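Practice record 12: protein with 0O2.
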Amino acid sequence: QSLQALRTLQDEFVRFLQRYKFGIDEIVTKLSILREDFAASDRGNPIEHISSRLKSADSIVEKIQRKGVEPTFDAIREQITDIAGVRVTCSFVSDVYRVFDVLTSQSDVRVVRVKDYIAEPKANGYQSLHAIIEVPIFLSDGIVPVLVEVQFRTIAMDFWASLEHKIYYKYDAQVPAELLDGLKQAAVTAAQLDADMERLHHEVHGGEAVHLSAASDEPVP
Ligand code: 0O2
């Protein structure tokens, strides 16, 4: 390939990634506005922490190989849905669903897919609510939709996931069985802590509807 062709490809990749950065900016701004608005209201602020990351080129390539994705921008756009990632940490499980509901009911937000690992934790104990969300990005030459993966979780779920992530990488995915068992047990303890905190919170703020599922609108008392 000529140097010129390589430069063009590099420019295209930079612009490709930049759109995901704009997607992150849009979602983080929406969440920051909600956080400030909740804080100014008398309904209490459900958002403890917001973080974000743009997937690295290395990670994107690794995922393309692992999933056997065709190496074209269109195929990557369609099949790698976590290039833009935003994480929202809440105190209570009910807040996780509350923030999810408020964000996803905004008129320019489209929910593409939801994976509720709180309702159905992964085998290793991992819990979080994942939503692939599409938002419009207003560029100088038009509007483009961008996918952002938003992970909603409690502080306890986040604590567990960050330790599990470190252990997974330390052992290069070959985690000894007793550590896996320990992690599984810690996930049960974390879920129990979340349930206890939720109950105590509800006792103090009794009467408010508590949503504990993304799939159902039924309030759980
Ligand atoms: P990072 O560092 O956050 O970018 P995949 O599992 O990635 O092939 P999919 O459908 O994209 O396919 O996965 P999923 O389950 O929707 O979510 C993937 C992301 O969720 C991960 O991203 C993690 O952030 C988080 N996650 C999922 N499962 C676990 C888990 O068991 N432990 C921890 N700690 N995090 C998990 P990345 O790209 O792996 O990492």
